[in-house]
Amino acid sequence: MDEATIRTWMTETASSIRAERDHLVQLDAAIGDGDHGINMTRGFEAVVLAFSTEDGGSPGQLMTLAGKTLISAVGGASGPLWGSALRRAGRTLGDKPTFEAEQLVVAMEAALAAVQDLGQAKPGDKTMVDALAPAVGALREGVAAGQPLQSAVQAARSAAEEGMRATVPMQARKGRASYLGERSIGHQDPGATSAVLILKALERTLAAGG
Fold first, then answer.
1. Which of 2, 50, 78, 102 is deepest in the core (most CB within 10 A)?
2. What pairs with residue 183 in β-bridges?
3. Neighbours of 30 (CB within 10 A)
4. Alpha helices for 145-174 (secondary structure H)
5. The CATH number of the domain where 34 resides is what?
6. Number of domains within the chain
7. What are the C-alpha distances in Å from 134 to residues 15, 52, 85, 140, 156?
């Protein structure tokens, strides 16, 4: 994996989130401000634009740029959370021109840690962590078991989807949705949903040889 992998991943992410913007808005309107889809679309389109003006750059530098761009371009909680996640992941990759599956695991673990450090959420709180934590766990296990990276990422995406669906019966304990108390039960968390979209974009990137 190299610079092109990160560029393609972020472009795929922007495309996926744009396509699902209205769905994300609907999910967020039920338990939040209703702006998650709008904010995430704006943020990842800003990332693609920032990449278009950046010649070269290591994978780590591009991930860090993506994170900084999200923090500056996105309102609400999603910008700081995903921005911090990508920025910390980028720092773990450093300035090396390529990275392997093991480094991707470390980067994803760092991204999850950044989200939890900032949002103070844990699995079961009905947040993006409910999708991201099982995904990182599945990725780690797959790579440690010697699975091809595409298979490990596929397993991570599947675990994220399972975690996303599991947020429906949960009562939110973090974020704006937590203000609703029991009324948050029965709704899928929008942050967990967008986390799945980002992992699906990575899966497509690797399947295409990115």
1. 78
2. none
3. 15
4. 149-166
5. 1.25.40.340
6. 1
7. 24, 33, 16, 10, 7
DSSP state of 127: S
Q: What's the half-sphere exposure (Cβ side, CA atoms, 13 Å) at 183? A: 9
Cα distance between residue 86 and residue 67, in whole Å: 5
Contact 17, 24 (CB under 8 A): yes
The DSSP letter of residue 98 is B
Predicted model pTM: 0.92
**What pLDDT sits at residue 38?**
92
> pLDDT tens digits, residue range 114-160?
999 998 889 988 899 999 999 999 999 999 999 999 999 999 999 99
Residue 46 near residue 70 (C-beta atoms within 8 A): yes
Query: Which residue's entry shows tokens 């609703």?
Result: 180
Confidence of residue 178 (pLDDT cuts 50, 70, 90): low
Which tokens sit at 124?
Answer: 């079961």
pLDDT in tens, 28-64: 888 787 788 999 999 999 999 999 998 878 999 999 9
Domain range for 100: 3-207
Alpha helices (H) along the chain: 3-19, 21-31, 36-52, 59-73, 78-93, 101-119, 129-144, 149-166, 190-207
Q: Assign 201 a pLDDT band (cuts: 50, 70, 90).
A: very high
Q: Which residues contact residue 70 at a Cβ distance below 8 angstroms, ignoring those fewer than 6 apart?
A: 43, 44, 46, 47, 78, 79, 82, 83, 86
